[in-house]
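The protein record filed here.
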Amino acid sequence: MEQLYRINLPVVDSTNSFVRDMLDSRCDMPGMTLVVADSQTAGRGQQGNSWESETGVNLLFSILCHPDFTLPSEQFILSQCMALAVCGAVREALVAEDVTEAVSVKWPNDVYVGDRKVSGTLIECDLLGRVIANCIIGTGINVNQQEFHSDAPNPVSMCQLCGHELDRETILDDVMRRFRLYYEDVRRGEADKVRAEYMRSLYWRDGRHHFEDVRGEFTAEIAGIEPTGHLVLRFDNGASVRYEFKEVRFLIDCH
């Protein structure tokens, strides 16, 4: 297993940007590097969305790794590794607190408790020829935040769910332990094992649900997730359509 280096920051614009700046300055960052911040002034989510977090209460971190054993066309497996790591760590912590709501991965890599979002991840990859030279995985986990004020539709924290604050470091250690195990699975050529667990952990993996695309609202079931990361939905008439991220929306009733 690769050596893990850690950098702690009191405040940063975003942990992903910090790692990017280090790479751009040609800083030597071998193995796997974990950057953890107490506060972000410009935390980023998918597609330019912001990530809300009060200072010192949640987990805000980025991992830099060098998965040159992964094809660019299959880089989604790295997203699956982190989503499963967070899902497993959150589930274990909440079960210990007798929280019975289901913890699952909402495609592509959000982690949900019931119908509410507890974590999100942003991944950026640098390609070198036919392999991935660098991968920056930035993750936020709502641990101890008591209230949310942004227009995000359905945030929740672990503290809100169990009624008291949890130890952030314990949760982070568990996430990293799980991520490194999944990462090693992929390195050994066992990506299908990770993909199968991802499908078992998937939000809305069973039954028909409401979605929306550019043509409007519809009902469909999740037929699969391709190695490229595309979501495949099967319509009522039996036809299947594949979607890239942001091409389809889950119509979740959070009330």
